[in-house]
Structure formats: structure tokens, C-alpha cells
Amino acid sequence: MAWFSKNRATIDASEKKTIGRGVFRRCESCGATLKAEEFTENLEVCPECNHHYPMSAESWVELLLDPGSFEEHDIGLVSGDPLAFNDSKPYPDRVRATRKKTGVDDAMMVGSGTVEGRGVQIGAFVFRFMGGSMGSVVGEKIARMFERAAERKQPAILLSSSGGARMQEGVLSLMQMAKTVSALGRVREAGMPFVSVLLHPTTGGVAASFALLGDVNIAEPRALIGFAGPRVIENTIRQKLPEGFQRSEFLLDHGMIDVIAQRREMRATIARVLGHLVG
């Protein structure tokens, strides 16, 4: 009897540790514990407090474009190793391992599609690939996306979510800032609009280049948007920053972005913007 009771207690303890794993999720913002499927069905937004969790690039493309209209371009591009960079492992090994882990080639996905029947060129950062950092492949894909938009006379939509330039590629990574902005100029010359969607976080060289150059800049609620982080700025200027500094609401109040859109409203907002700008 003692043996049975002891094992029963062990089983109960184990069950308590594992029960509900993957079934429930606790919101880090409001503390509410809800069924995981409630987050999924609500596009990774907390139904209780409206906290927007990250959503994959693939899910964004599915959300924004007409069903079945997406055609991916520039697949298979791989970064070189111009600096022979080596931290805990050589850069090429890190890239190969990240490609295997994430199932994507790099931190950017681009392609063609339609929004309510209107042809567009679209790109989305893949944040799970090295924090969405911008190296030569990311810059090349964005530049090609802008060039296709200009050639086909279609609007360009880019969803940014990035920690900034990729340090492993040094100055070649920083060079993508100028390269992408130059390609964006061709979209402007063709008379086509660029809709920039800023997700959490949009920082570093991405924020300092094309991300805030949209004809319309749209952000999600509470997204962190800026060049350097708040702590770096405070340590540099030795001043306390205002409440909510670098969040999308602060940027809207100070004229840096044009609109904040809830995730469920993003497709309709972009479609409405394109309707006004393209006709």
C-alpha cells in the first residue's frame, strides 16, 4: 500500500507539471491566462488587453494578401562572409544553422500578390532569422522588390521588424541602407506609393533608412520604433526620456508616423490607403 501511495503521489506531481502545457497561455502584459487557441484565433493579440505579440512573416502575407495570390521571389540568396567573421562560431556556420532551424534562407521574404485585386509588391522581415537583422541578402531582396514595383508600376508594401544592421557583415550591412533608399527612389519616379508597416521592434539601420520613408507610415499599437534604444539614449544625453518614448503612440503624436492600426484592421487600412493613392 505504501509503495502504491508513493508512486501515486509521484504521478500526480508529474501530471501537475505537464497538464495544460501548450493548451493555455499567460499574457505577459495583463497576466490573463487564456486558451492558446484564443490567441491564435485573434491573430496573436491578447483578447483581454490587446497586447500585440509577434506574428510570422508568412502569417502576415496570408493576412494581407488575397488568398492564393502570393508568389515568392528571389529565393535561395545566401550571405557571403566578407569579414571572415567569427564569434562563438564562424558566420557561415551560423547562417547555415539558422537556415536549418527557421526553414528560411534569410531575414527577408519578398514577392508579388494582390490586395483586393490590386497588384502589389510586398516584403516582410523574418524576425526569427537572427532578429530580422539586415545584411546584404536582406538589402538585395528589398532593393529588388522596389525595382519590381517601379518596373511593373505597382505599389510597394514592406513590413519591418528588425534589430537593425547585421554586425557580422560590417560596412556591407550598413551599405544596404543607402542601397534600399536609392531603389525606393525608383518607385517614387514611377509614381507608385510605398506603404511602410512598422511592427515591434523596428530599430537601428532599418528605422534609419527606408522604414520611416513611406508615403504612408502605419504602425501597430505599442511598437518600439527608433534608432538607438532608450537606455542608450538616456546614458548618452544623461536625461530621463518622456513616458512612452519611441513607442508608436509617441511617434504618432510627434508626426513621425501617420496612423496606428490594429492587426485585424491592417488589411483594410492598407487597402484604403492604396485606394486613395492609386485610385
Structural summary, described in words:
- The chain has 279 residues and is of the alpha/beta class.
- The chain folds into two domains: 18-53, no CATH class; 54-278, 2-enoyl-CoA Hydratase, Chain A, domain 1 (Alpha-Beta Complex), CATH 3.90.226.10.
- The chain is 40% helix and 18% strand.
- It is built from ten helices and ten strands.
- It has helices at residues 2-18, 36-41, 57-64, 91-102, 136-152, 170-189, 204-207, 230-237, 248-253, 266-278; strands at residues 24-26, 33-35, 71-73, 108-115, 118-125, 156-162, 194-203, 216-219, 225-226, 259-260.
- The strands form two sheets. Strands 3, 4, 5, 6, 7, 8, 9 and 10 form an eight-stranded mixed β-sheet that branches. It has a two-stranded antiparallel sheet with strand order 1-2.
- Helix 5 (136-152) packs parallel to helix 6 (170-189).
- The protein is globular and about 45 Å long.
- The termini are far apart.
Compile the SSE list and pairings.
Elements: H1 2-18, E1 24-26, E2 33-35, H2 36-41, H3 57-64, E3 71-73, H4 91-102, E4 108-115, E5 118-125, H5 136-152, E6 156-162, H6 170-189, E7 194-203, H7 204-207, E8 216-219, E9 225-226, H8 230-237, H9 248-253, E10 259-260, H10 266-278
Helix pairs in contact: 5-6
